[in-house]
Amino acid sequence: MKLEIRNVTKTYKEKIAVNNFSMELQSGECVGLIGPNGAGKSTIIKVISDIINANSGEVLLNGNKISQMKREIGYLPQYPNFFNWMTAKETLAFMGELSGIPKEELVKSIPEILIKVGLKGEENSKVGTFSGGMKQRLGIAQALLHKPSFIVMDEPVSALDPIGRREVLNLIEEIKKDTTILLSTHILSDAEELCERFVVIKNGTKIEDTTITELLNRNSENKINVEITDKDQPWIEVIKKLPYVQEVEVIGYKIKINVDNIKNNKNMLLKNALDHEVDIVKFDINNDTLEDIFLTLVV
Ligand code: ADP
Ligand code: MG
């Protein structure tokens, strides 16, 4: 399986929601589409899922236009629309029939999918009684009902409480084993847990297509973080004069130190601190979190 999004542009009246966006996805990947609110994530996902048409550009699955390949793709909307008075089973039957799955097939696949998403035993409960996590798992069941090879999920965990979030993250981890996934989120840590590759979008434009590892390496090279106590503030002046120190940034008792070569200089710096009898509260390297990096990218 290969998904190609080629030069997709989508405007709403004069507003450009997605601007010349391209990316590719290979079979077996789990990719996070990351960006702040209003970046254009839902719009891209709707174009991929053939819910809306782009002004220009195209989406191809295995070389064919996505509109001819809808059986291969599952879609979880950002705000799934359920009827509270329907049971879980009725919901899936209703949605399955709407998307043209034969009744005989649904009789077999609905119980299977309810087991898969952990809703066995709840098939006859009304959706109105479900927690956020259960509703979202039902949404995922609906997206997987026709056994697509590729599933697109729009902010699958963003709106959930910690328990619901955990339920859904675990479920996606399971689905990942046999389904190619594209999921969007504005919360980087959601994607961090599931995806190795990130595509970052800002104001409708792709600004990054990279892996977690690459991103972390690129942004925190040669940086040492030291936390000291009040009595050792004068040591900061000592650090600034060290030949291998390039830059020193002080925030309260926390010091960020850029050095020439992290491998050679980290022990030198530590030794210098000990020589000056500095009371070290914390000493670590490469401490830029993905969240820090994400913020510098999109803000
Ligand atoms: P995201 O999912 O990343 O939050 P969206 O794709 O929903 O972003 O929206 C991208 C931009 O397009 C936003 O500025 C939003 O206000 C605008 N937009 C989205 N849908 C519509 C619509 N139906 N009509 C007009 N503007 C829209
Ligand atoms: Mg959205």
UniProtKB/TrEMBL annotation:
Coiled coil: none annotated. It holds the Pfam family DrrA1-3_C. Keywords: ATP-binding, Nucleotide-binding, Transport. One of its GO terms (molecular function) is ATP hydrolysis activity. It comes from the Bacteria. The keyword Hydrolase does not apply. InterPro entries: AAA+_ATPase, ABC_transporter-like_ATP-bd, ABC_transporter-like_CS, DrrA1/2-like_C, P-loop_NTPase. Residues 3-228 form the ABC transporter domain. Belongs to the ABC transporter superfamily. This is ABC transporter ATP-binding protein. It comes from Gottfriedia solisilvae. The lineage of its organism: Bacteria, Bacillati, Bacillota, Bacilli, Bacillales.
